[in-house]
TrEMBL record:
Transmembrane segments: 34-54, 61-81, 115-135, 156-179, 185-207
InterPro entries recorded: LeuE-type
Compartments (UniProt record): Cell membrane
UniProt topology in membrane: Multi-pass membrane protein
GO cellular component: plasma membrane
Keyword Iron set for record: no
Protein name as catalogued: LysE family translocator
Endpoints of the signal sequence: none
Principal subcellular localization: membrane
One Pfam entry name: LysE
Keywords recorded for this protein, A-Z: Cell membrane, Membrane, Transmembrane, Transmembrane helix
Organism for this UniProt entry: Haloferax chudinovii
Lineage: Archaea, Methanobacteriati, Methanobacteriota, Stenosarchaea group, Halobacteria
Amino acid sequence: MFGLALAAPPGPMNAVIAEESVVRGWTAGARAGLGAMSADALFFVLAALGLVAFVEQFPTVRAVMVGAGGVLMLYFAYGAAQETGTTFREAADPDDDSAGFTKAFVLALTNPYQILFWLTIGVGLLETGTVDVLAHTPYLGASLSNLLIVETGSPALILGFFGGIAVWVTGFPAALVAAEQRVDSFAPAVAAVSAVVLGGFGVVFVWDAVRALAL
């Protein structure tokens, strides 16, 4: 539940996964999802080592990371917009498939939402206590608080957390590909929505970084 709550809401990472899935197929979509999940695994290791707090202590470093993430999102939005005329059956160059993992991994490392998660509740996963799972769902947390409380500090919670993410990053691309194979216009529509989502988040993140660095 925790992993799914973090991975499922619409956002820049799912926009990348969706674009890769409908343009290049399930393998590319799942690979992109695993790229995002690998970034979470890296953040988890850094949290366990106590290194995640470094970002919190240096606001300028965090602002630069946010700005870099915003620029990357704008770049990927441009790429998604170029693919609005592509269908799954027209299949992009197979050599491009491997880029999905790198794209999602780098984007996740500079995604302010993931950075903030690991600075706060992510660190708390390692300590004995409780956590309000759904309260930390991106964009929807305030309305879902107190619905699911779990104990932290348990290996089972960590395994379940990453297990939930794995279910999403493999199942979501499969559902998209299945839908695209039934509707020829589905891939261009998803690519267009991905471009809008990435572009919107990119503008917001760049603006936040500029304001933070200007202070």
